[in-house]
Specification:
This protein has 256 residues and is mostly beta strands. The chain is built from 1 helix and 14 strands.
């Protein structure tokens, strides 16, 4: 019998091997706890810059990526180049998308600067600095909305209800990120966490006082106010630094 040849999409140049440290440094000592094991993964190179302008791309496939919560789309450009991008909700196999700095068609998956996108548009994959690549609204189901604009900045509202000032030349993608039901996923057994690469975590109240601030006591004593191993409070304690580099671009946070 003749063997049937299966045609596979040739995009191996976008996939790389991924090494795991198991939470250990170059001396083999554990520096980050509760990391280890996990299924073997390969890294897919994602195009966060979308800097291939005015070339039509066709969505060849929508795939699962083990490194992120959202799905990814494989693009075949008209000139033959292939790239991965984060998949947008509603984007289907065979759709055509484009990235441009001069005009905005407002189709799902298209990328354009903020000054070309109208107010109230749902956007994702937003750049903080023009040309540096997207850093906002990249997780599954997240999106942002353009609230207002001035001569230099656009004010966008993130999924966390935080408002930010971003330069008008920054690129953004039309639509919201795919796989919005990811947050409802439930682990069916302890092994699911081990596949991800997470090892069992020891509770602080089960330790001795020398090992954790919440440890010690007779019997199942409460550990007091929740805090980390280093004594940092887990609830009601702000961790953002006041003099952070981009703090001046953050406007007042809305109450939910």
């Amino acid at each position: 019998m003749k063997k049937i040849k299966i045609k596979r999409l040739k995009y191996n140049k976008l996939i790389y091997g991924k090494l795991k440290s198991g939470g250990r440094n170059n001396q083999g000592r554990i520096t980050v706890r509760y990391i280890g094991g996990g299924h073997k993964q390969k890294y897919r190179l994602i195009d966060f810059k979308r800097n291939k302008y005015d070339v039509i791309a066709t969505v060849k496939n929508i795939e699962y990526d083990p490194n992120r919560s959202a799905y990814i789309s494989l693009l075949y450009y008209k000139d033959g180049e292939k790239k991965y991008i984060l998949s947008v909700k509603g984007l289907k196999k065979g759709d055509r998308i484009i990235s441009s700095r001069t005009k905005s068609s407002l189709n799902l998956g298209d990328s354009a600067p903020l000054h070309l996108i109208p107010l109230g548009t749902i956007i994702c994959c937003i750049e903080n600095i023009p040309g540096n690549g997207a850093i906002y609204s990249r997780s599954a189901g997240t999106y942002s909305k353009i609230i207002s604009k001035d001569k230099k900045y656009a004010i966008i509202k993130l999924s966390s209800n935080e408002k930010k000032m971003i330069l008008l030349n920054s690129m953004a993608t039309i639509g919201s990120i795919s796989n919005k039901n990811h947050k409802f996923k439930k682990l069916k057994k302890a092994g699911n966490n081990r596949w991800i690469g997470k090892r069992p975590r020891t509770r602080g109240v089960a330790m001795n006082p020398i090992d954790h601030p919440m440890g010690g006591g007779e019997g199942k004593a409460s550990g007091g106010h929740p805090k980390s191993r280093k004594g940092i409070y887990a609830k009601g304690f702000k961790t953002r630094k006041k003099n952070k580099k981009y703090s001046k671009y953050i406007l007042k946070k809305d109450k939910k």
